[in-house]
Amino acid sequence: MVESNTSIEKSSVLRQAHIDCEHYTLSLLEEGSYAGLIDESGLTRIQTEIMSLLKETLIKYTHGESTSVKSEIAESILTSILYSVDAQLLCFSPQVALNSLIMDDVKKTYQKGLDLITSCFDETKILYRQIANSKLHVDLYAYNSTIDEALPEFFAHYDPVYSAQKTWALMDYPLLYSDLKGSGIYFIKQYLESLAIEEHFCSLFDHEAVDNLLYNYGKVYRINYRETLINIMEILLTNSIFSVLSGNRALDLRITTYQYTLLQEKFKDLDSGLCTSIISSAIITLLEELHIDAPKICDYIKKYQALLMPRFISALENDNLMNIIIISRDKDQPLDIRWDEGNKLNDDDFRLMVEQILECTVGTDKAAIINSSINSLGDFIDVMEADCLFDTEYTDLFTTLGDMELSILVRIVFAEELRVGGTVNLRPIVDERQLEIPWQIEFSGFLNGLTPARIRAIEYFIPAALQTNKPSIY
Amino acid sequence: MGFLDIHSSMANISKHLSIDELLKTNEDSGKYGLLLSSQDALELIEARNLTIQNYGRVELGIDVVKSIISEFCSTPYINAQDYTMTLHELVDIFYYMKNETADRIGDSELIGLMKIYFNNSCRGSTDLLKNRELALIASILKKSWDYAGGDD
């Protein structure tokens, strides 16, 4: 039906667009009156019943000692009563709800609504406890204070009878989406339901990797991320998406400078439709890899694309994608090359270090000793040939190396192939070469276990390695 | 639509019912020669509505006015000529004191105190009642409240 301001005809059906869910009862009565579904006497009866309910509640509020209160208190209690009536009526369609208002005693509707609110409060409190018990270990003030202080404060003070509509809590931590509506316990419930999804998603990632990503995020934006109102899921989800597009696993939040460069190349000159399609596919891959199949969580994650795309396209156009894709730099990131040829250990110190390594039984500890003692490539190769590392202990050591250092080792192990082939396509070289020296065999196996993206990052540095460290120098 | 505007609801819904309720108080007060006409009752209700609105308060019903009539009709200091006027003043004093004491005195207790002072030290003066006796009580309460660092 087309409406016009001059129309005096009234419809006999409710105008859905004029029904306000946040003021359901009042808008139903207003629209019901407009549509001629409720007459003046009906309105007066409902008004009288609500006022009678208010009077009873005010007397309870003053413990029967006073029949009058300050206006703001009366208004707040009236809003609380309507919040309960709304809660019950919102279980029905507008038409059915209006009929209920016309036919039923408002007090009964109020009581049912109050019961719903009380039960919602209990459910929400249980949900809060679950969230608090599985809290993320992140050093983020807003997140921690929201869970440890603001929400307990809410549950301690929420009053469904006198102030059901109040939210009380000062929840600083922003959710991924700021589209929550309503007030009171229903608002808190929505907030916690979203927080539970976000917490679940974030908990899939290694917390050190999360810390590292947040640290790098802070570096990019030049902020103290610990005290900034940032959403953790947004940062993790974004990097996870682009990590997938870099060839990493979805759980790997690290995106190297090289991978970033490849991503820039990948998206350069693509129209926004194609960008959207690529990112959409990455999100599907991410969901599969993370084994996320609950529809609610899937929808929550997919919805993020609408938020991400305008920012991404804008960043792409302005050549500042690094504000979106956070490049990984370890907090205590070593120099690209930690080896300095002029800094070799003398024989005694070297022997002492080997003895220390042999006394040690844990591979990661052995790697730590080597990394803290050795500063030259020559010593590094010598220690790997000193029969003090066994089996997976080599992998423990290689894991501590950066892309540049690994590329130097590649240049040493596969020098001949690289020279003859004149190529830096590492995978076939590693697969074909038969090796005899134990550390080289282990190194080849280590390379085979790396993701294609990491291999590409190592390949990227091989020409530089040729310039920087010649195999002959050790 | 102002459907649930508390003040207009009070004024409109309860007016005709309240007049009847106030006229019923004549049964007791009549024993002391104090009677309200329908017009007096209407004016008293309208004055009460205006008073509580001015004091930023809400009351659904006229229980307080009825209690004041019930307590004060036997006082020797009110006669038929100034009955309505005195009721207007007592009603005003009552709501004024509710605010001044931040609702820390219950209705019955406050009306009881008003009656004691009115009949004794004030000898029927609503001016002394409000500005001397009750002002002192409000002041003492406020100081004790401030001292306790209280905040409702």
Give an overview in words.
Chain A contains 22 helices and one strand. The radius of gyration of chain A is 32 Å and the shape is elongated. Chain A starts with 23 loop residues before the first helix and ends in a 6-residue tail after the last helix. In chain A, 63% of the residues lie in helices and 1% in strands. Chain A is mainly alpha-helical and 474 residues long. With 152 residues, chain B is an all-alpha fold. Chain B has one domain. In chain B, helix 4 (38-54) runs parallel beside helix 6 (83-100). The N and C termini of chain B lie far apart (33 Å). The model of chain B has no long low-confidence stretch (mean pLDDT 89). Chains A and B meet through helix 1, helix 2, strand 1 and helix 3 of A and helix 1, strand 1, helix 6 and helix 7 of B.
Key structural traits:
heterodimer, A: 474 residues, mainly alpha, 63% helix, 1% strand, disordered N terminus, B: 152 residues, 67% helix
Structural class, judged by helices and strands of chain A?
Answer: mainly alpha
Number of domains of chain B: 1
> Into which percent range does the helicity of residues of chain B fall?
55-70%
**Low-confidence spans of chain A:** 1-9, 466-474
Would you identify the regions of chain B where 5 or more consecutive residues have pLDDT less than 50? Answer: none
Q: What does the average pLDDT of chain B come to?
A: 89
- The percentage of residues in β strands of chain A lies in under 5%
Q: Compute the separation of the termini of chain B in Å.
A: 33 Å
Average pLDDT level of chain A: 87
The amount of helix of chain A comes to 55-70%
**What is the count of DSSP helices of chain B, taking H or I runs of 4+ residues?**
8
The profile of the biggest β sheet of chain A is:
none
Q: Please count the beta strands of chain B (DSSP E, at least 2 residues each).
A: 1
- Rg measurement of chain B, Å: 16 Å
User: Can you count the helices of chain A?
Assistant: 22
* Shape field of chain B: globular
Rough shape of chain A? Answer: elongated
Strand/helix succession of chain A? HHEHHHHHHHHHHHHHHHHHHHH
Q: Please count the beta strands of chain A (DSSP E, at least 2 residues each).
A: 1
